[in-house]
Amino acid sequence: MKIVIIGATGTIGSALADVLEAHPGYEVIRASRSGPVKVDLADPASIDALFATLGPVDAVVAVAASGTICRIDAPSDADYLTGLDGKLVGQVQLARRAARYLTDGGSLILTSGIFEFDEPGMSFTALVNAGLAGFVPAAAQEMPRGIRLNAVSPGWISETLRAIGRDATVGTPVAEVVRAYVELLQGADRGRVVEPGTPEARKG
To answer: What is the distance between the alpha carbons of residues 2 and 188, in angstroms, rounded to a whole number?
Structure first.
C-alpha cells in the first residue's frame, strides 16, 4: 500500500509515519511544507504537483494544518483567519484532488478537531473544526470509485500540553491518536469522524 502522509514532520504525523513504516507492505511517503517531498495545503497548485509527481496512491492522510488561537475581537481579519486556507479550505481542496488520484477503493483521512471550548480565543478553531466535521460525512457520500473519506478529531495531545507546561492528563496520548488513524486506514468506514480518547472511539 502506497500511503502519503501530509504533515509528516508534526507530532502526530511523524508518529503515524513511524508506525506505518514498521508495517510490512506499506510504502510511506512523508510530505510537508519543509521536507524533501513538499506540499502546502494552503496552495492548491502544490497539491496538484504532489499528485502529479507521485502518481496513483492508495491512501492519503492529512495532519498538516491547524487553526489559530485568537479572539473574535482580533485587530485584523488576517490575524483572526490564520489557518482558514490551510486547515479548512486546504483539506477540502485535497479531498477534491484525491478523488482524481487515489486508486479505486483508496482511503483519505482528514484531521478536524474538537469544536466545543470553555476558554476564550478558540472561536476560529471551533469554526474550522465544526466545518470539517460537517463536511466529511456529506462528502464521503460523493467520493467516486469506492474511495473512503473519514476524519480524526484529536483534541489536545498529551505530549503537546506537557511541552507547553500545561496539564497533560486532560489530553490524549499521541499513540492513541495514531491508533485511530491506523484503524480508519485499515478498516471499511466511510464518513466517520473519530474522536480518540472517547468511549465510542475505543469501541471502534
So the answer is: 17
195, 114 contact by CB (below 8 A): yes
Task: Supply 195's cell numbers.
Answer: 474522536
Count of structural domains, the chain: 1
pLDDT band at 32 (very low <50, low <70, confident <90, very high): very high
Q: Is there a contact between 61 and 181 (Cβ–Cβ < 8 Å)?
A: yes
Mapped onto helix, strand or coil, the DSSP state of residue 125 is: helix
Range of the domain at 55: 2-203
CATH number at residue 95: 3.40.50.720
Strands (E), the chain: 2-6, 27-32, 37-38, 57-62, 102-111, 148-152, 193-194
Least confident of 40-49, 83-92, 164-173: 164-173
Q: Are 12 and 18 in contact (CB under 8 A)?
A: no
- What span, in angstroms and rounded, lies between the C-alpha atoms of 1 and 68? 34
Cell numbers standing for residue 6: 501530509
Assess contact for 62 and 41: CB atoms under 8 A: yes
